Amino acid sequence: MGQHDLDRSLGLYPTMMISMGAMIGSGIFVLPALGYKKAGPAVIVAYVLAAVVVLPAALSKAEMATAMPESGGTYLYIDRALGPLFGTIAGIGAWFSLVFKSSFALVGLGAYLLLFAPLSQGAVVYVALALAVLVVALNVSGTKMSGGIQAVIVTLVVAGLVAYVVNAGLVADGARYTPFRTDGTVGVVTAAAFVFVSYAGVTKIASVAEEVKDPAKNLPRAMLGSMAVMTVLYIGVVGAIIGLSDPAVLRTGGPGGTASLTPMADGAGALLGGAGVLFISVIAVVALTSMANAGVLSSSRFPLAMSRDDLLPPALRAIDPRFKTPRNAVLLTGIVLVLLIRFVPVIELAKLASAFQILVFSFENMALVAFRVADAPSYDPEFTAPGYPFVQVFGFLAGLALLTQMGAVPILGAVGIIVGSALVYLAYGRSRTDRTGAIGTILRARRGEEEDGVTQTKPE
């Protein structure tokens, strides 16, 4: 094994748990109340709608992952399909989005931590910083260790969530589900745009494809299996939250009359009183830490892959000789994570990350179309996404439709990420690479056909 090789140490179960760990976080513990404020009980439908829009990208990425089982995920596929400029934008943007999500998770757990720990609001930031350092150290120490711990944590959290849903079914108030749609179809679509990020983790596992055993089988199974489980779990948990909680608390129980930041705890008191709140709050803190761990694990592989392609400095491709992890890429990700937690209002920036992730998911569908049309011999996936090209076109258009519901500020933030990433490419990567991607192959073939046509019709 060379100095730039990673260790294939993740089997199906830990791979699936990393994917689920990236989804069991804000999507369950924070976002349901925000979605409820926009759509009422129909937020349950919004979670289903978001899953439908994510599914084409999950299928597309599962196919591309089996054709290119290397680190990099989103960056790698868009770079190879659309060229290094789009690859740089996707890589840096997806990296920022995941780091924002991880910082949001660690800061967001503070609201639950305050429900049972004797801490001041100011001390919560330092707890988040300590957990960030722990997560980074864990990721430097080895993917197998990180993945193994992730599997144990996610298994326990899922068991706790299932118990929450089952018990809620016995005491939930059916009257709280009527009226079901408080803000019409527009409210459901808007809520779907905001909870869309809940499913973003499903495709992030592709970024650690190089560390997965038998990736041709395990990657598609982990992606699609984790998405199926999480869709059912989201529906159950959100339904339980609505049936257990006072609607006024969900809508205005947060700071300054905003939506509640602890929706699961709001309803937990109806199950077991104070013990229920304590139980759910502890699960939330553990789950949000797990989400941050999964975010660092997968996001750190973007700078690794980009460095291998000479789009970022060579130091980022170094693999720790002892732990076989991308040490420098993890440390860079960790430094940004700590700075965000300490100095930036990450809850606001999480909205910007969501908008960019919707955009990236849309273009992942188009990346698959580019690979199929180019028909390059090197593209030989072992899993084939069904429904091509209709599924991919639907995913692309549906993603853009959701993006329009995010509001002006998140859209402008996504544009800012695009511009900044493009500048990085122009300043550093452009002079170091001459790849064109599958789209270049298509354009060259079309140009050759046109030239042949001109030659054949040219008078003698």
UniProtKB/TrEMBL annotation:
Subcellular location: Cell membrane
Keywords in alphabetical order: Cell membrane, Membrane, Transmembrane, Transmembrane helix
Membrane-protein topology: Multi-pass membrane protein
Transmembrane among keywords: yes
Predominant location category: membrane
GO cellular component: plasma membrane
InterPro entries: AA/rel_permease1 (IPR002293), APC_superfamily (IPR050367)
Transmembrane parts of this sequence: 12-34, 40-60, 81-100, 112-140, 152-172, 184-202, 223-244, 270-297, 329-347, 409-428
Highest rank taxon of the organism: Archaea
Entry-linked Pfam families: AA_permease_2
Protein's name in the database: APC family permease
Organism of derivation: Halorubrum rutilum
